[in-house]
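Workshop exercise sheet. Pairs work together: one partner reads the sequence aloud, the other fills in the structure field after running the prediction. Swap roles for the next sheet.
Pair: D.N. / O.F.
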Amino acid sequence: MPARFPEFRPGSVLSTAFTGTLTERCGEPVERIPVPQRLIDWLAMNGLAVEGCTDSQLFLAHELREAIHLAATAAAVEDTLPRSAVRTINDRSIRGQSAAVLTAEGDRRWQLSSMQSVEDALGVVAADAIDVIAGVRDGKLALCASPTCRAAFFDTSQSRSRKWCDMNTCGNRQKKARFIANQQRRT
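Structure field:
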């Protein structure tokens, strides 16, 4: 029987969705890409299909994910970016071989090298993180208000006042907890 893994959380921004493959960082962490096949699945789901993945490539992915999380968290609270995180993000971006291509529908898609390697896909994720952290995109980095989550997310709402990385998980959980607390106070 195949192992069951937690579902991936959707995200509209590649790099912050990637950091969301480890959730509940301040509670009981949930690893959503614990094995190479799950990384292959996540990359494919995000338009970065690769031919295979080794344990060492999975390690590189986890290392990049944590570097993005550290740098995005620092940027969200307007702190100095950790040098080691910046170095890791830059290294993955430089080593990846990919190109942006335009589809007939007018959308951008990433074309990995002919080898379709994990390193190329990680290069795309790292380049996306650079755009987000450097402020190239219209939006704002923020941290999830959930005390157990604290995920970095990219807020593109009109008011830039979103509180939760995902309303369907963290937001609902926090609203439910508030409701229960209010009910208990009343009784």
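Discussion prompt: The mean pLDDT is 90. What would you look at next?
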